[in-house]
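We were asked to recover a plausible sequence for a given structure. The inputs and outputs are reproduced exactly as logged, with field labels preserved.

PROBLEM: sequence recovery
POSITIONS: 141
GIVEN STRUCTURE:
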């Protein structure tokens, strides 16, 4: 099961994020999945996954996701990842800056019957905002 779930998360990163195929979410995420990391106002389930992913792909259409590590335990898969992209579209009210960013993050996905049924995630939002020039970077000592 662990190896099968690793293959599924690799497929999610490649097909959904790198190939920009939001329809693949229908095959990889359960219709009634719960995402503990969605911003307020987005729906749960596949529609929330599509809305969240679509929002970032619209803002960073050249997104490239790279998996750095995958760890499995039972029905859960932990993925440490790195993303790069150029901010050429609006993101949550922030107009395009044209700046390239590199962001890192961690996801935990729980699988059942070959689909994501639950997700937790964290990524370096502050670092991304600093790279975009939206908030100041820390002063150097």
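RECOVERED SEQUENCE:
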């Amino acid at each position: 099961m662990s190896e099968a779930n690793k293959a599924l998360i690799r497929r999610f990163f490649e097909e959904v994020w790198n190939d920009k195929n939001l329809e693949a979410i229908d095959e990889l995420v359960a219709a009634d999945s719960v995402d503990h990391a969605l911003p307020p106002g987005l729906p749960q389930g596949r529609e929330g996954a599509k809305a969240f992913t679509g929002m970032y792909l619209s803002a960073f259409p050249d997104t490239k996701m790279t998996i750095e590590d995958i760890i499995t335990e039972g029905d859960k898969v932990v993925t440490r990842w790195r993303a790069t992209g150029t901010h050429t579209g609006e993101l949550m009210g922030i107009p395009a800056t044209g700046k390239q960013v590199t962001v890192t993050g961690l996801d935990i996905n729980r699988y059942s019957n070959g689909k994501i049924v639950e997700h937790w995630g964290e990524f370096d939002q502050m670092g991304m905002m600093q790279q975009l020039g939206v908030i100041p970077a820390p002063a150097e000592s």
